[in-house]
Amino acid sequence: MQRFIARRVLSGRGQFPRWLSHAAQKEASLHDNNGVVVPKIPPFDYSPPPYDGPSADEILAKRKQYLSPSMFCFYQKPLNVVDGKMQYLFDENGRRYLDAFGGIATVCCGHCHPDVIDAIVNQTKRLQHSTILYLNRAIADFAEALTSKLPGNLKVLFFTNSGTEANELALMIARLYTGCHDIISLRNAYHGNAAGTMGATAQCNWKFNVVQSGVHHALNPDPYRGVFGSDGEKYARDVQDLIEFGTSGNVAAFISEAIQGVGGIVELAPGYLPAAYSSIKKAGGLCIADEVQSGFARTGSHFWGFETQGVVPDIVTMAKGIGNGIPLGAVVTTPEIAEVLTRRSYFNTFGGNPVCTAAGLAVLNVIEKEKLQENAFIVGSYLKERLAALKDKYEVVGDVRGRGLMLGVELVTDRQLKTPAKTETLHVMDQMKDLGVLIGKGGYYGNVFRITPPLCFTKEDADFLVDAMDYSLAKL
């Protein structure tokens, strides 16, 4: 009987049957067929309504027939997610999963947070869409609240629908303002998949063979794989070299993330951005902070990722966490720089949509009301410490890095050579999914676990995540 129960736990067929006694449930959650402790998902007081829609196999068949073949799924057996509540997701069978990926660092308040949902529903009932050519309080109220979160004279907003759009606009503004074309970004960076942002992106995995002119990629200040370790100022010298030997001596902009998300949760070496920004300023360029993934309290220690390096950019781009999943992005800059867009007509039909901006304002209020930045710091620090202990236990764990609830775990088959453990990464992801934990992956080699959960994550969730990873690594 015990083996039968354990198999049900590991097979992912939902909660324990109601006919089991509490003692039997407890016993079943403790050991697998080999007597090894099986991690148990923390209790949660929510059960989704029954799902009566198409099965995962039926949906997959439709995707293959009607959607672009470029779209892919995680896991050998793709997950059909039908319900979500705070830090948890539910599949078609009602099974609960701990969401440690947060829709790619997007769900910051929690899935279906009631305050955000109420803001969306109430605004939708009044006015779903008009145009920014008319007045509406939603966009103005959100703009006021959002700019209050930014330092210096970063007071003017342009709303977009995504991070790619925001970065495209930021690059264009910089080129218009400076009269220069050259952009400097970092190797291993990801800034989007449109014309300009694909040029600034610096991983061949995400670049097509189309014209991408005027972008120079500097050495990545990667403390783990970089040539200068954690010496940020040495990496920054390459920015100056690019200016002197790759451009006319003047540039339009430098764009970077403070923590590279798609690149594998790489936190820039300390002291890098102040030195790099100094070189860019002397060359007449603007400094752009891409906060699409690291913004909105995710780092815990600060509200914005760039603040961890003690710099103030000229332009900040944001998306993802800004709307807790609503399609919304923004570019923030100074009044002086913003004036360049008045030389012609610049317009975005959906940027600043009242429903989206109402959701954005609700997100800011929830972050403050529920002290999610503080929670990201406390729980993120605890989680990172527990993940670091796995590095001492398993040779396959090459590096644990990141800040707050934006953490990465890199797997390698050889610690000295840092050989990427690609197959092992996929295997552990599948094993953790079977246990009830969803995490992402990234990095150029696809060997880095990306842990970016909703900021309402608890220490109990952190324990479950690490225990599940520990259990899975032990089975490699």
Automatic annotation (TrEMBL):
- Pfam families (UniProt xref): Aminotran_3
Record EC number: 2.6.1.44
Looking up PROSITE patterns in the UniProt record yields: AA_TRANSFER_CLASS_3
Concerning CDD domains, the annotation shows: OAT_like
Has keyword Disulfide bond?
no
- Tell me which cofactor or cofactors this protein depends on: pyridoxal 5'-phosphate
Q: Which SUPFAM superfamilies match?
A: PLP-dependent transferases (SSF53383)
Q: Which GO terms describe its cellular component?
A: mitochondrion
Q: Which domain of life is it from?
A: Eukaryota
Catalytic activity, as annotated: glyoxylate + L-alanine = glycine + pyruvate
Keyword terms: Aminotransferase, Photorespiration, Pyridoxal phosphate, Transferase
Coiled-coil stretches noted in the UniProt entry, renumbered to this chain: none
The protein's GO terms of the molecular function aspect are: alanine-glyoxylate transaminase activity; pyridoxal phosphate binding
**UniProt record, GO biological process:** photorespiration
Task: Give the family from UniProt.
Answer: Belongs to the class-III pyridoxal-phosphate-dependent aminotransferase family.
- What is the protein name stated in its UniProt record? alanine--glyoxylate transaminase
**Lineage of origin:** Eukaryota, Viridiplantae, Streptophyta, Embryophyta, Tracheophyta
